[in-house]
Amino acid sequence: DAGVIQSPRHEVTEMGQEVTLRCKPISGHNSLFWYRQTMMRGLELLIYFNNNVPIDDSGMPEDRFSAKMPNASFSTLKIQPSEPRDSAVYFCASSLPGGSQPQHFGDGTRLSIL
Amino acid sequence: EDQVTQSPEALRLQEGESSSLNCSYTVSGLRGLFWYRQDPGKGPEFLFTLYSAGEEKEKERLKATLTKKESFLHITAPKPEDSATYLCAVPGYGGSQGNLIFGKGTKLSVKP
Fold first, then answer.
1. Nearest residue on chain A to B33, alpha-carbon basis
2. Cβ contacts (< 8 Å) between B102 and chain A: which residues?
3. Residue B26 CB: number of other CB atoms within 10 A?
């Protein structure tokens, strides 16, 4: 079975540019999560969706960040405008519904903002 | 505040030298504790879920145990391929059910 698929794997862009990260969850998983990982702060939840509806976006750092899930098989995380401090690895994960279900992660997008 | 603390931050072992990793948590109403393995350049890979104190799970050379305050990941006779960062996580309480709180991880290196 295919796991969580993220694209691109690497993104290098200049400050001020718009960045769009993409995620395809595991088929049949109703919950989708976006995380950011840095050396300083570890893995932090940004936002999560249940059945395509955003449930908790309290981890989104500021209005420059937005996420959408137009259907059950696709989600995007957008940063506009990007800043150097946004440089990190961004992970998407999916799970069956319920807080006690394990989340399955993609291999991430390594984002560098120059 | 819900917290997860892992120790040590880094652990170097010789091949065959058994040891344990610790994950301490403070959360109201534990609804599971998750262990993940993360290799460089990869996403975390799910290993185990533990739900109640006294529960144990095993997979190859790994065994996870759970008490009311902490979990241990025991590694028996490790091999170089066990080298990775091991993360533990718990669901946060009071917020949305999806809010997994992760520890910073233990970076394990196993030398041949």
1. A100
2. 42-44
3. 12
Neighbour tally for B87: CB within 10 Å = 25
Tell me the residues of A at the B interface, defined by beta carbons under 8 Å apart.
4, 31, 33, 42-45, 48, 50, 55-56, 58, 91, 93, 95, 98-100, 102-108
Contact yes or no for A99 and B102 at CB 8 A: no
Among B45, B87, B97, beta carbon nearest to A99: B97
Omega of the bond leading into B112 within 30 degrees of 0 (cis): no
**Residue found by looking up tokens 């989708």 in the block:** A32
The pLDDT of A53-70, averaged and rounded, is 92
Positive/negative CA dihedral, A53, A1, B91, A43: negative
3-state secondary structure at position B95: coil
N- to C-terminal Cα distance for chain A? 37
A16-53 residue pLDDT tens: 999 999 999 999 999 999 999 999 999 999 999 999 99
Would you state the structure tokens that stand for residue B19, as one six-digit string? Answer: 């040891």
**What distance in Å separates the CA atoms of residue B110 and residue B21, rounded to the nearest whole number?**
14
Contact yes or no for B88/B71 (Cβ under 8 A): yes
Contacts of B91 in chain A (CB under 8 A): 99-100
Distance CA A39, CA B13 (A): 23
Biggest alpha carbon–alpha carbon distance for chain B: 45
